[in-house]
Amino acid sequence: MAQDRRVTAGAVPAEALPDTFPPIDLPVRPPYPAMEARAVETIPRGAGWLYEPKWDGFRCLAFRRDVAVLLQSKAGQALGRYFPELVEALGALPPGRFVLDGEIVVTTEDGLSFDDLLQRIHPAESRVRKLARETPATLLGFDLLVDETGGDLTALPLAERRQRLERFFAGLPVTPRVRLSAATPDRGVAERWMDELPPGLDGVIAKRLDAPYGSAARDAMQKIKRLRTADCVVGGFRFQQAGAEVGSLLLGLYDDDGLLHHVGFSASFTAEERRALKPILEPLVEPPGFTGSAPGGPSRWSRGRNTEWQPLRSALVCEVRYDHFSGDRFRHGTKFLRWRPEKKPRACTFDQVRRAGSREALVALGL
């Protein structure tokens, strides 16, 4: 039986990723805690901010010293074996030493694909090598911690680090595997990034121009996620693991063939709201619920957890808030906002969450 790619992709325990590194002669060495961001609701205003795209990828610190290239995740894990094409590309750059902070992404025709990125975290080296050829990754650099002379730049303000980063990239040969990530001091540009750019952008990062690189600190960087809404059909529901109340709504969207596909869930309800849901949903219990892809049944990953669900007649439409949609489903649980009795279920299609990718927009951001 073919495996569900969405379920199996990246299904590697965190402890399976190595967290030890060989010695490397640099002033900043792995494992080195990356600068963190504080979540805020709105893009900060005023002078003194630099705005960057918030990429939907893997945060990565890249260390180079002569023939040695090490890739480190934000959690301090070694990523090199999973991205051999990046190790090769970084090792081929003319500077013999540097440390870059950036994001690993995979580009597709529709933008960036986090699902293709997850496929790379695989225990089989042959599989990793195959995917490195078929869906090669790109490292988007947005900070320079050690320059080509071996100088430690972490104590310098971001304004100077950014200038040195741009000079660093200006001296490199053009390669699709290592690119300079975009940045702007113009808040209006950052607002357009939030509203207009293609899949693969989670939102905006705002950094203090006068701040040094704060390893493991959240004082100088803020993240603003782009939240969106979608109207979905409630194709089914699950009861709570303990108790008789509704645990989650199972959401669906129609494709061009008129099939209703399961795309995610919403479970953000108070106890009072859960009690109110049961008399709304139970009169509508009727198979099949979903006529396309349906919620999965029991598996070895859900041992001891009830995965049974109740199908509903396609009648209820609700509006939910979500942060990201990829692989034909909401990446995380959604936030229930309201019912939409005035909207016909068949009008809830994938068109509202599938945004066409823009090559021009991606190029403008460094891809």
Q: In the CATH scheme, what's the topology name of the largest domain?
A: D-amino Acid Aminotransferase, Chain A, domain 1
Instruction: Tell me the strand percentage band.
Output: 25-35%
| Total DSSP helices | 8
User: Structural class, from secondary structure content?
Assistant: alpha+beta
- What is the number of independent domains? 2
CATH superfamily heading of the largest domain: DNA ligase/mRNA capping enzyme
Helix content: 10-25%
Corresponding CATH architecture of the largest domain: 2-Layer Sandwich
> Tell me, what's the shape?
elongated
* SSE pattern, N- to C-terminal: HEEEEHEEHHEHEHEEEEEHEEEEEH
Q: Name the CATH class of the largest domain.
A: Alpha Beta
- Count all strands and give the number: 18
Mean pLDDT, to the nearest integer, reads 87
- Give me the Rg, rounded: 23 Å
Q: Low-confidence parts, pLDDT < 50 over ≥5 residues?
A: 1-8, 298-305
**Spatial separation of the terminal alpha carbons:** 37 Å
Largest sheet: 6 strands, mixed
Your description of this structure?
The protein is α+β, with helices and mostly antiparallel strands. It is 19% helix and 29% strand. It is built from eight helices and 18 strands. The strands form four sheets. Strands 3, 4, 5, 6, 7 and 8 form a six-stranded mixed beta sheet that branches. Strands 11, 12, 13, 14, 15 and 18 form a six-stranded antiparallel beta sheet that branches. Strands 1-10-9-2 form a four-stranded mixed beta sheet, with helices on one face. The chain is elongated.
Question: How would you summarize the topology of this molecule?
Answer:
Elements: H1 5-8, E1 38-39, E2 49-55, E3 58-65, E4 68-73, H2 84-91, E5 97-108, E6 111-112, H3 114-119, H4 125-134, E7 137-146, H5 158-170, E8 178-180, H6 187-196, E9 201-208, E10 221-225, E11 228-239, E12 246-254, E13 260-266, H7 271-281, E14 310-311, E15 317-322, E16 325-326, E17 329-330, E18 335-339, H8 359-364
Parallel strand pairs: 1-10, 7-8
Antiparallel strand pairs: 2-9, 3-4, 3-5, 5-6, 5-7, 9-10, 11-12, 11-14, 11-15, 12-13, 15-18, 16-17
